[in-house]
Amino acid sequence: MADAELRVGTWGFGPHPWVSVERTRGFYARSCAPDIALVDLDAGPLAEDVDAILSFASARWHREPRPGDTPIVLAMHGGPVVEHALLRELLPKLRTSDTLLVNCRSDRAIVEGLCEQPPHVQVLPLPVDTDCFVPFERAPCRAEFGLDPDAVVLGFVARLVPQKNLHGFLRVVAELRRRLAPRPVQALVIGNFSASYPVLDYGCRAYPDYIQELRRRLELGDALRYFAARLSDDQLAAAYSAMDFLVHPSMAIDENFGYAPIEAMACGTPVVASAYGGIKDSVIHGETGVLLSTWASEGGIRMNLSAAVEAIVALVDEPARHEALSVAAFDHVHANYAEARCAGVLRATLEQAARRRGGEALRTRPSSVRVADDSLPPTDPPYAAFAEAIGHYVSHPRPRLRPASLVRRAAPTRRDDAGELRLDDPAWPAAVRLDPEDLELLERCARPVAASELAPPGTAAWTRLQRYLDRGLLIPAEYEQP
């Protein structure tokens, strides 16, 4: 089938209110022009004379009768995690001959895990503007943002909601200021606060006040530069060029791609990020940056941010290695995330999808994952509803305790009004009620301590320690990297 002959109908391809989805829609439109004709089916009959239907942001694929034998290409965006429970019910509306577009390998694993015989699943990388996002001279970029030319500059670019983990970033900055003194360490934060989050919102509305208080407690003072997310792409490229590292410790459950790490690497800035979801695909550990191991506890996603501190300290002391990461990051993005390459993947996927007919209705498997998440505040849906999908997004299984293990508390703790011990972590504010003996044991874990010093292996106390790891109250102080 020649490109010029291809007609693809579209459902839900109008302007979208979410910035990231609208950005993706523009990429789709540019990729198809002029060889693939996009036919708007929203206002017309169920299907015209089209070779395939692209369902971009529409529920018609599962709400209405199927349009004959016409193959469907479903753009999933962040759906495999956020709509995981619903997908188990709705995917049987599709056929094995249909195609699902996902943005990371973790999403592909979710779909393949849901289906007895999966449809065609294509991982589609999204592009960045590799003409705009390029390295600029550092000194003028730092001057533009009021940064010290000799400082170690850490950047954070994201929505300022708890799951993006600005609070964790600030704690990394504070520890690096202590470790690298007297050399100055500064932070450049770019983003907007939000009053809500679509899933597992444990405190978006209170987050700005929390961050202000944390900044005061950590005595960051004038070490922090903040800019709202109103920068042009050219200004954002200058911001990335001003950084020594972009730190992206996201724990957002639907982190299926992540533009900021890729834009930073395009500017030659190494990335230190959580090994989670789409970031596992875009950042190459030890080559373009550093990935921080993640795992799913009963009380939420966990990672060891002290590994970020150690990695940055080591790279500050090895400028040649930092430069090698910078060069590799630039090369990686400009080779793999340029629009021409990503557009080629999309066009080839649509062409191949249009050739497929027939197929069987998808059959989904029942879930085998059970999580007791009573330590987290109630939400609708609860954390347990996403646990199976999150298991594909994290990089490691839940850690098992060994005698040589060093463990520490997952976050600072406080007693709440109900007398429960609560982690001071707005993203995952797990709380438990413990007896005095257990409280004393957790107090000893304020700093890394060998598990064998806390309890003999094989005893009831040892079992309780493992339970604390399972619930996410404790984390390994050292955990293997991805």
Summarize the structure.
This protein has 482 residues and is α/β, with parallel strands linked by helices.
How many discrete structural domains?
3
CATH topology of the largest domain: Rossmann fold
The CATH class designation of the largest domain is Alpha Beta
> Into which percentage range does the β-strand content fall?
15-25%
Low-confidence stretches: none
Residue-averaged pLDDT, rounded? 93
Strands ordered across the widest β-sheet:
2-1-3-4-5-6
Shape-level CATH architecture of the largest domain? 3-Layer(aba) Sandwich
Distance between the termini: 42 Å
Domain Glycosyl transferase family: 142-292
Pfam family, one: Glycos_transf_1
Protein name: D-inositol 3-phosphate glycosyltransferase
Region (Disordered): 357-376
Provide structural commentary:
The chain is globular, with a radius of gyration of 24 Å. The relative contact order is 0.13. Helix 10 links the parallel strand 10 and strand 11. With 482 residues, it is α/β, with parallel strands linked by helices. It has helices spanning 19-32, 60-63, 79-82, 84-90, 105-114, 138-144, 166-180, 207-217, 233-242, 259-266, 279-282, 306-316, 319-336, 339-354, 387-393, 436-443, 451-454, 460-471, and strands at residues 7-11, 37-40, 52-55, 72-75, 99-102, 120-123, 152-157, 185-190, 224-227, 245-248, 271-274, 289-292, 294-297, 300-303, 406-409, 413-415, 421-423, 431-432, 449-450, 474-476. Helices cover 35% and strands 16% of the residues. The chain has 18 helices and 20 strands. The protein has three domains: 3-125 and 340-354, Rossmann fold (3-Layer(aba) Sandwich); 138-333, Glycogen Phosphorylase B (Rossmann fold); 399-476.
